[in-house]
Amino acid sequence: MTTSLLMPPRLTAPDGSPRRVGVELEFADLDAPSAARLVRDLYGGEIAMENPHRCRVRGSRLGDFAVELDMRSAHPPKTDGEPGALDAFLEKLRPLWGSIGSLVMPFEIAAPPVPFERLPELEALVDGLRERGAAGTGASPLFAFGLHFNPEVAATDADYVVDHLKAFLVLAPWLRAQIRIDPTRRITGFIAAFPVEYAAKVVDPAYRPDMDTLVADYLAANPTRNRELDLFPLFAHLDPETLFATIRDPHVRPRPTFHYRLPNARIGEPGWSLAQDWNRWVAVEELAADRGRLDALGAAFRDYAARRKLDDWASEAGQRLAG
């Protein structure tokens, strides 16, 4: 049974163009050249092999894809000039490091940003990976793999951003229950929940900060990009001076997107698709667009948090969404 992809309430970016979403998908048991060939076969384009563990597919009908082992030491660094003797020796070891690392580290396909209505075209990629034997999170206790959505924002004012942060925090316990987080992800801590005290502060209906205060409060409570909803890329786009004065992380790239970091990529499971997790994100955007409902749920969340009953809140939030 195919799950239809839902659309959020706002479909245009600040410049009036259709909103787009980037997708990052992690997997194992299929190397970068094989995955790149799958991308080419599905969407066209030309393969450019940068090293045994990193390929590009350029000029596909959706744009340019990147396929690589998610392990920095397996790839040559970007440097100027000729490498020294030691550097040259280390470069010869990179393919070996990558081959060893691929036993536990994921390969990742980063799809180009596509308009929301074209997101269903990426479902063929999930099916193709499964058919070619790619493994997802559940295939091994060592596989802490994820799926990331990067939906472009519809606006850049503080109210819009805080509404979506509030909505996510209110729904996060329900989202985690629906996603069925793999134990490997819980142990590794790659994608951590927001501190309860911070969540309770933000969902308070009275919390209406300007952008400077929003960013400062976020960084004070979350000095890490390892959050379920990582706002570092968006804040790097909106307020780079404040962010980079506090955070030094080469992985943070300015982007006008929410970085929704899902803890599972269940590629090997029949029936798993992008639609299920995407539709849960749409529930976040729908709640963010309804101020009255958002404030009511925020006040209820605070009450549950004060009574240390957020496990119960997951069920309550689901019932209120369905009601």
Order of helices and strands: EHEEEHEEHEHHHHEHHEHHH
The amount of beta strand, in percent, is 5-15%
Helix content: 40-55%
- Mean pLDDT, all residues: 85
What's the Cα radius of gyration? 20 Å
Give a count of the beta strands, DSSP E runs of length 2 or more. Answer: 9
Biggest sheet character: 9 strands, antiparallel
Low-confidence stretches: 71-77, 89-104, 139-143
Overall body shape: globular
| Tally of alpha and pi helices | 12
Structural class: alpha+beta
Cα end-to-end separation: 25 Å
Topology readout:
Layout: E1 20-27, H1 32-43, E2 46-51, E3 54-58, E4 65-69, H2 85-101, E5 107-110, E6 114-115, H3 123-131, E7 147-151, H4 158-179, H5 183-188, H6 196-203, H7 211-221, E8 229-230, H8 232-238, H9 240-246, E9 259-262, H10 274-288, H11 291-306, H12 310-322
Antiparallel strand pairs: 1-5, 1-6, 1-7, 2-3, 3-4, 4-5, 7-9, 8-9
Helix pairs in contact: 1-3, 4-6, 4-10, 4-11, 4-12, 6-11, 8-9, 11-12
Relevant terms:
alpha+beta; 323 residues; single chain; 9-stranded antiparallel β-sheet
Description:
The two termini are 25 Å apart. Strands 1, 2, 3, 4, 5, 6, 7, 8 and 9 form a nine-stranded antiparallel beta sheet that branches. It contains twelve helices and nine strands. The model is unreliable at 71-77, 89-104 and 139-143 (pLDDT under 50). The chain has 323 residues and is an alpha+beta fold.
